[in-house]
Amino acid sequence: xxxxxxxxxxxxLILSFALIIFSINxxxxxSYFRENEFYAYLQSTGxxxxxxxxxxxxxxxxxxxxxxxxxxxxxxxxHYIIYDSTGNVIYKxxxxxxxxxxxxxxTVLKAKITAQKDGFERIIFANKENxxxxxxxxxxxxxxxxxxxxxxxxxxNLIISNVILITLMVFISRFYIWKDLKPVGxxxxxxxxxxxxxxxxxxxxxxxxxxIGEMAHTFNDLLDRLDASYSQQRxxxxxxxxxxxxxxxxxxxxxxVALMKTRSAEEYISTLxxxxxxxNSMVNLISGLLELAxxxxxxxxxxxxxxRIDELLWQTENMIKSKTPMYKINIIFxxxxxxxxSLIVNGxxxxxxxxxxxxxxNGCKYSENNKVDVxxxxxxxxxLLDFADEGVGIPLNEIEHIFEPFYRTQxxxxxxxxxxxxxxxxxxxxxxxxxxxxxxxxxxxxxxxVIFTNKSRIN
Length: 459
Ligand code: ADP
Description:
Blueprint: H1 3-54, H2 60-66, E1 78-83, E2 89-92, H3 102-110, E3 113-117, E4 120-129, E5 134-143, H4 145-193, H5 211-259, H6 265-298, E6 305-308, H7 309-323, E7 328-333, E8 344-347, H8 349-365, E9 371-379, E10 382-389, H9 396-399, H10 421-431, E11 435-441, E12 445-453, H11 455-458
The structure holds adenosine-5'-diphosphate.
Residues 358, 362-363, 366, 389, 391-394, 402, 407-409, 412, 417-422, 446 line the site of adenosine-5'-diphosphate (ADP).
């Protein structure tokens, strides 16, 4: 069932219920007051009649002649019977039937009795006149024609008002609910039309400062992110192709040139050395790409164990130094850890070494002095590693891009590289639940800070 249908039933149902209860209340109150009023009327006219008969000396025949004849209009007839204190009838209007018996008399002398039958209301009460030392028991009955008429009119009026109001409520609430939910239809129609081919399309969110507008806004944000990651994916493939095709084309060209004529052994050695360099660079690129793909596809199956960060740093230092001895790496403990556990992180040693290698090699590669200081710090239950160099730095407007695959800053284009290391580094740090921050000043230096939660927090 659609929300608009559900709400147009629910809202008027609740309001109708309230309206009907309210109407029943009014009706019952009216009926109660009508009845009480009529009994009060019968009581006072009964007392009047007894006074006129026994004090004013008006005869019973006189009343018989002025009382409405029961046969002509029974509902206009009022009956009065007056008994003396012993219960004997001393006056009775035409056609009246006495109801008083001994038992009733005893009750009436204590309190008045009221009863209703077929709409006729009857009151029997004792009228004690203390000054004259006499007591009459008066029985008065009649049909409250005017009262019942008003009550019936009120009933019809309430029924009609209820029907009109409930119908109006259904239509008005349906209209407003439909009006409020109309944008949802528009939004879902637009959502259905958005595919990977037109990810730039957005949902209209103007003039919607309500929950639906918020939802449209959130969905547009999601589309922004999807669009960005989709175009990143597309760029990734085209960059990867370009990065692999260019060195291969150069390699092919150089091979063809080398084969054009017979060359000396020195020339062959030099050409092969060039080839070695290019192939090495491609191997680096391919292994970086494979690692990145593995991270994205298969990160769940990577084994984790407790590893000592300082040991991994020493291992990384040895690895780098054996390959590029001119790189200078200083591993410095800024603070002495409280216990060994502060240095232990739950992670994958191979991947963490890759992170440290990328950051140290970048620092050395992009600075003239080829030097990186690795500082080890602790903060509560975290281990903080600073990789600081005094190199070319990263321009402020480019910092946000350096973790994108294949992104390389303008300043470093001349130095060999592929722009795969940092995205991979970030992915690995994320996988370890860590954080990576960059602080850089152009021509002064760059510091990458990597933060991991250490073992003492987990325990
Ligand atoms: P690569 O170093 O192979 O180009 P990375 O993904 O490791 O790829 O780095 C991406 C880019 O970020 C680099 O090309 C460089 O422009 C910039 N960068 C990374 N580290 C530094 C650094 N320490 N100093 C200056 N620029 C850096």
